[in-house]
Design a protein that fits this description.
Distance between the termini: 19 Å
Number of domains: 1
Number of strands: 0
Shape: elongated
Radius of gyration: 14 Å
Helix content: 40-55%
Oligomer: single chain
Length: 51
């Protein structure tokens, strides 16, 4: 990921409840696929409006 992309997609700030929901979704996907699924949350920032 280059600098532009990392500025446009910083890590999302999740509450404890939101993080719990994300982990539950990971567990459900792991159970249904048999794969070691990891979900990552990013916040999308439109750099055109920021710059």
């Amino acid at each position: 990921m280059n600098d532009h992309e990392s500025n446009e997609f910083p890590p999302a700030h999740l509450s404890a409840e939101q993080l719990s929901q994300l982990r539950k979704a990971e567990e459900a996907l792991r159970a249904s696929t048999g794969e070691d699924i990891v979900l990552i949350a990013y916040e999308h920032k439109d750099l055109k409006t920021i710059l």
